[in-house]
Design brief:
By secondary structure, the protein is α+β, with helices and mostly antiparallel strands. The protein contains 16 helices and 12 strands.
């Protein structure tokens, strides 16, 4: 199997431990190096008699990250010390080491590969390339909305890194701006391959800790289904949404609210938040974030191809309107009066009234069909649950309780025609029980007005 050196890009054999061109360490041993004595991880301390700690550079739910010097390879490395509370769970340690072996197969300049794994009491230390720069999340916080060229430079490299992983059957499962490192010259490094399956995939509280939020997780991932490369594409779509708009597509006070939004709520169009965005960017983001995996891009390289093709089509097109052409003087043709003719049939008042009535009838049918279709497609899920709860109130003749239930449901599922109609009916039933005489007078008045309208239409037609 041929792989590409993450440092110089040289194509080499997978079995070689070091790149012959630059000496880059391509892969450590399959078996982790065991450390009997727990290191202090203070500045100047040595880990496994090879890595000298320089400083701590970050920490989070996974654990802590240190910058260290590889005394043998003479290079800076990053040591990620995993949280012992996570690794102590039954079966996680062995599965994690197996997943990490698979992650070592991903060799690409835009992916940080694990060089080695150090096994110590109750935890693991991952040795990987150290990158000078900042995370994409920090750039978004500092810069807000990205310009198109800078975003394209970053997204293109993320697509290439993901494609290299997907080609060898590795799914990241935790693509987010925090896991995308940006160098000073806008180089991209994707980190934490192999960690997401057993750690990052459980973002809700586990063993008393919060490991993250489902801000970037695909619908199939938050629902516990099997994921593939298209799950990473969905997460990349959320990242692109945040890069171009400066905001996340979904927010919520709880993790459950975010999960429900990813499962059911369509994202607001990026073009509404940033009107100057070209339509092809909005299309690219929304296609990547499609709820159904079959509706998304199949491969990350398709996103790259879409960007290249769209930019080529828009190159050379001026932003301003074309200059107004100079008018050419022409001789005005003589005005010829048309001969008088018989009035058209549509000029007759009778036919105008009939056409207006036909138009109203067709419009009414369209409205009824729209309501019926919406009611049919909304007859499952949350709407069906709300209707079943409201019907319990209706069976007890508590129509006001049913009305309140429908109103609460409208707040949860805005735009549901079915809930609006049922809420109106429930309120009319409640009002008729409270004020029956008023309802009778209202119906009589409506009947009188309708009769008068029909009488006037009949007289007009007789003329």
């Amino acid at each position: 199997m041929m792989i590409q050196c993450p440092e110089c890009g040289n194509v080499i054999e997978d079995a070689i431990a070091n790149c012959p061109s630059c000496g880059c360490l391509l892969a450590g041993d399959d078996e982790p190096t065991r450390i009997d004595k727990l290191p202090s991880f203070e500045s100047g301390a040595k880990v496994a008699d090879r890595y000298e700690i320089i400083s701590e550079v970050g920490k989070g739910g996974f654990g802590r990250v240190f910058r260290a010097q590889d005394l043998e390879a003479k290079r800076s490395v990053a040591l990620k010390v995993l949280n012992p509370a996570i690794m102590s769970e039954e079966g996680v340690h062995a599965r994690f080491l197996g997943e990490l072996k698979i992650a070592k197969r991903v060799a690409h300049p835009n992916v940080i590969r694990p060089f080695d794994v150090l096994e110590l009491a109750g935890s693991c230390v991952i040795v990987m390339e150290f990158v000078e720069g900042q995370s994409l999340k920090q750039m978004i916080r500092n810069e807000g909305q990205f310009d198109i060229q800078k975003a394209k430079t970053i997204i293109s490299q993320v697509c290439l890194g993901l494609d290299a992983a997907h080609q060898v059957g590795v799914v990241h499962r935790d693509i987010k701006p925090q896991n995308i490192l940006i160098t000073k010259n806008l180089g991209v490094k994707i980190v934490d391959f192999g960690l997401a399956r057993h750690l990052g995939g459980r973002s809700i509280s586990h063993t008393g800790m919060i490991l993250g939020t489902p801000d970037y997780m695909s619908p199939e991932q938050v629902s516990g289904k099997t994921v593939d490369a298209r799950s990473d594409i969905y997460s990349l779509g959320v990242v692109m949404y945040e890069m171009f708009t400066g905001k996340l597509p979904f927010t919520g006070e709880t993790s459950v609210a975010l999960i429900m939004a990813h499962l059911r709520k369509p994202p607001e169009s990026p073009k509404r938040l940033r009107p100057e965005l070209p339509p092809w960017i909005s299309y690219m983001i929304l296609k990547a974030m499609a709820k159904k995996p079959s509706k998304r891009f199949r491969k990350s390289t398709e996103i790259l191809e879409h960007m290249e093709r769209s930019i080529e089509q828009t190159e050379g097109v001026p932003d301003e309107e074309s200059p107004t052409p100079v008018p050419v003087k022409t001789q005005r043709p003589p005005i010829i009066k048309a001969p008088e003719s018989r009035r058209p049939i549509w000029a007759d008042r009778k036919w105008r009234l009939l056409s207006a009535a036909l138009f109203c009838f067709i419009l009414l049918l369209a409205v009824v069909a729209f309501i019926a279709i919406r009611t049919h497609f909304e007859s499952s899920g949350m709407v069906r649950h709300i209707i079943s709860v409201a019907k319990q109130y209706e069976e007890q003749l508590d129509y006001y309780g049913a009305y309140q239930t429908y109103i609460s449901g409208i707040n949860e599922v805005p735009g549901s025609v079915s809930l609006y109609v049922r809420a109106a009916i429930a309120y009319i039933q409640h009002f008729s029980r409270q004020h029956p005489s008023v309802l009778i007078f209202f119906l009589l008045g409506a009947l009188i007005v309708l009769s008068a309208l029909l009488f006037l239409i009949q007289r007009k037609l007789k003329r």
